[in-house]
Amino acid sequence: MKLFGYFRSSAAYRVRIALNLKRIEVEHVPVHLLRGEQRREEFLEKNPQGLVPALELDDGTVLTQSLAIIEFLETLQPEPRLIPADSVLAAKVRAVALTVACEIHPLNVVRVLDYLKEELHQGEEEVGAWIRHWILNGGLDSIEQTIAPAPFCFGEKPTLADVCLIPQLFNARRYATPLDHLPKILAVEAACAELPAFRAADPFQQKDAE
Ligand SMILES: N[C@@H](CCC(=O)N[C@@H](CS)C(=O)NCC(=O)O)C(=O)O
């Protein structure tokens, strides 16, 4: 299988962590987002949305959307489970994952930031304030209240919640978002940093890192 990604893409980072936790090997194919490679015809043929990640299976089928890809991996290789069997816990795990993927991340992606800068003529300062506001407001601030680190978001093993939270924290730090008021989230981050699966997925460990 081939994973089309970009070292700094937090959505691709989620998939890398899941692959590593499940010990599934894939070929990593970089798509340089700042050079616009995601909008080239050969990539659009794989993902008409022009977004990474995209997972190409050995038969040529292409899967898109990080959470859909991770659910596919969960079926392909059920252990270790990223979505708990207990349905209440599973809903809590998914709620954190969806808060990151649906409430925070879409407001910070390259195409949205470009629109703020180029079409709405906002400067670096305004764009930075936008990013930090939406990372915290209704995002990390609310996640802080719903998790109970032990030491991961929902217990002794990492779940889809941790898989989504850690890349979002990388992104938050990149934009100097204040995080000191989020002790539970910082404790989860420290626990994940102990695991090789998370460390190997770090953006600066990728072959396209720059
Ligand atoms: N909801 C999608 C988000 C994918 C996404 O927005 N990817 C970003 C990188 S993190 C991207 O490809 N951006 C390119 C662009 O905005 O042009 C997922 O979870 O896979």
CATH topology of the largest domain: Glutathione S-transferase Yfyf (Class Pi), Chain A, domain 2
Number of helices: 9
- Hetero groups: glutathione
N- and C-termini, Cα separation: 24 Å
Silhouette:
globular
- Averaged pLDDT: 97
Taking all Cα atoms into account, the compactness measure Rg is 17 Å
Number of strands: 4
Do you know the CATH architecture of the largest domain? Answer: Up-down Bundle
Report strand %. 5-15%
Q: Which residues sit in consecutive blocks of at least 5 with pLDDT less than 50? A: none
Largest sheet composition: 4 strands, mixed
H-E string: EHEHEEHHHHHHH
Explain what the structure shows.
The chain has helices spanning 10-21, 41-44, 66-76, 87-104, 110-119, 124-146, 160-174, 183-193, 196-201; strands at residues 2-5, 27-30, 54-56, 62-64. The chain has a four-stranded mixed sheet, covered by helices on one side. The two termini are 24 Å apart. By secondary structure, the protein is of the alpha+beta class. β1, α1 (10-21) and β2 form a beta-alpha-beta unit. It has two domains: 2-80 and 199-205, Glutaredoxin (3-Layer(aba) Sandwich); 87-196, Glutathione S-transferase Yfyf (Class Pi), Chain A, domain 2 (Up-down Bundle). The protein is built from nine helices and four strands; from the N terminus they run βαβαββααααααα. Glutathione binds at residues 9-11, 33, 38, 51-53, 65-67, 101, 109-111.
